[in-house]
Amino acid sequence: MSEKKLAKTGSSSTADEFDYETGLAVIAPDAVKDPGLEPHRTRMTDKSVKHEKAATRQVAAMFFASAIGSAFAIYAYFAFPLTEDLSTVRNNTLLLGLGITLGLFGIGIGAVHWAKTLMPDAEVSEERHQTRGKEADRARAVEIIKLADSESGFSRRKLIRRSLYSALAVFPLPAIMIFGDLGPNPGDTLRHTMWKKGTRLATDPTGTPIKASDVTLGSVFHVIPEGLAELEHHKLEEKAKAAVLLVRLDPADLKESEERKNWSYDGIVAYSKICTHVGCPVALYEQQTHHLLCPCHQSTFDVTDACKVVFGPASRALPQLPITVDAEGYLIAQSDFTEPVGPSFWER
């Protein structure tokens, strides 16, 4: 091993030696001293009772603002209900979001302001052991935690404590309300739709009945039950369950089981439009492959083979609507779906 060439620089405050082979300065162990902690800066809240009380009121005001914001979110949710008018969606979302934002920021900023102005800010440096400490040390740690709790003023600053309790009590309510309004587990509600024996298939959104002769080879129709467009109540809920895709194929391409031989009409098949993964609308049809694609998570269904899953996270085929024609040539349903529509997780 070759001997390293070292040269004195004549300075003990920077580099004592220089390694010409590595190009790095060699620092003596005692060349740089530990600067220690910076001098503690006393805050105004530590020197002045007036400033301390002002900071306390400011923290409490932020917590109360959080409670007001959460309460406003609840008010906005009910005061601006959602309708089919898109402006109501915008107003509801905007005001609900502002209330929740104020609820979040009030707690967050209040907690930060509390820590910066009222909690002890003395700098402490201590060594930390990697192994479990002695029981005496652990007991001492518990004492320190209790002391820190006492020094934070949480127990004696009643205004801050009560305002924080108020903010924390009201803050979760908008989330509970919103999630609760998603509704209970649908149970058997997805087993029944507006489709029934004799219901005509109609185009979405006009509600115009469809004749079999209107459906050309390779065409796709978005279909709803006749009469859905005239509903005054629960229109969107019923459409969400009853939406159907109507496709016409060459009858020779269909792979139908004996049970489903009469569920189609001259190559025309109807399947639920609601993806069995998480309920997104299946709306993309590939005419060459006869595949239906869900745009949300790319679940792919084979129309020629009972809409079975050929790709993606969906685990169940799209439910098929049995169809036929009436005396006037209009496509009609033979019955409702024979299985629940929508996501499979409801069954679990």
UniProtKB/TrEMBL annotation:
One of its GO terms (molecular function) is monooxygenase activity. It is a multi-pass membrane protein. It is found in: Cell membrane. Coiled coil: none annotated. It holds the Pfam family Rieske. Keywords: 2Fe-2S, Cell membrane, Disulfide bond, Electron transport, Iron, Iron-sulfur, Membrane, Metal-binding, Oxidoreductase, Respiratory chain, Transmembrane, Transmembrane helix, Transport. CDD domains: Rieske. The chain crosses the membrane at residues 59-80, 92-115, 164-183. Gene3D superfamilies: Rieske [2Fe-2S] iron-sulphur domain. GO terms for cellular component: plasma membrane. The keyword Magnesium does not apply. Residues 241-332 form the Rieske domain. Iron-sulfur subunit of the cytochrome bc1 complex, an essential component of the respiratory electron transport chain required for ATP synthesis. The bc1 complex catalyzes the oxidation of menaquinol and the reduction of cytochrome c in the respiratory chain. The bc1 complex operates through a Q-cycle mechanism that couples electron transfer to generation of the proton gradient that drives ATP synthesis. PANTHER family: CYTOCHROME B-C1 COMPLEX SUBUNIT RIESKE, MITOCHONDRIAL (PTHR10134). Belongs to the Rieske iron-sulfur protein family. This is Cytochrome bc1 complex Rieske iron-sulfur subunit. It comes from Rhodoluna lacicola.
